[in-house]
Structures are given as structure tokens and as C-alpha cells.
Amino acid sequence: MDIINPEGLLSTVIWAFFASIILYVAIRAFDLITPTDYRGEIRQGNVAAAIFVSAFIISLSAIIISVIVT
């Protein structure tokens, strides 16, 4: 009796790696497209920039998850 399905575990690891790469590329593309240096703004303590970037990352993660699941 297998408690952990090896095929399911491998599939999950592969999809998580793939999703991480997509998220990284999308964030880099966002940094290149937008004229504002959000990383610099966050380092200076700009809370609005941090909220904006975190909302972008959360929404992008939701899109990636929904694409992978379907």
C-alpha cells in the first residue's frame, strides 16, 4: 500500500518548478516594461509600491495556478 504516489509527487515537483520559472520570467518582464523602479522604491520604504508589486505577484500566481490546474 503506497501512501505517497511517486508519479503524482514527481508531477507536482515538475509543475511547481515550471510555475516558478514562469513567475520569475513574468516578474522580470514586468520590471522591464514599467518605467518605475519598484525595487528601489520598496528599498526606500514606499509602502504603496510594495503593495502594488505584491498584488501583481499574487494575481500572477493565481493565473498560473488556474492555467496549470485546467
Question: Summarize this, please?
Answer:
By secondary structure, this protein is an all-alpha fold. It has helices at 6-33, 38-43, 47-69.
Write out key terms for the chains shown:
70 residues, mainly alpha, 81% helix, 0% strand
Characterization of this structure:
The protein has 70 residues and is an all-alpha fold. It contains three helices and no strands. It has helices at residues 6-33, 38-43, 47-69. α1 (6-33) packs across α3. The relative contact order is 0.12. The model has no long low-confidence stretch (mean pLDDT 89).
Topology:
Layout: H1 6-33, H2 38-43, H3 47-69
Helix pairs in contact: 1-3
User: Main beta sheet, described?
Assistant: none
How much helical structure, as a percent, in the residues? over 70%
Principal-axes shape call:
elongated
Mean pLDDT: 89
Any low-confidence stretches, pLDDT <50, length ≥5? Answer: none
Secondary structural class: mainly alpha
Q: Alpha-carbon distance between the termini?
A: 29 Å
Order of helices and strands: HHH
Hey, roughly how much beta strand do the residues contain? under 5%
Cα gyration radius (Å): 16 Å
Number of strands: 0
Question: How many H/I helical runs?
Answer: 3
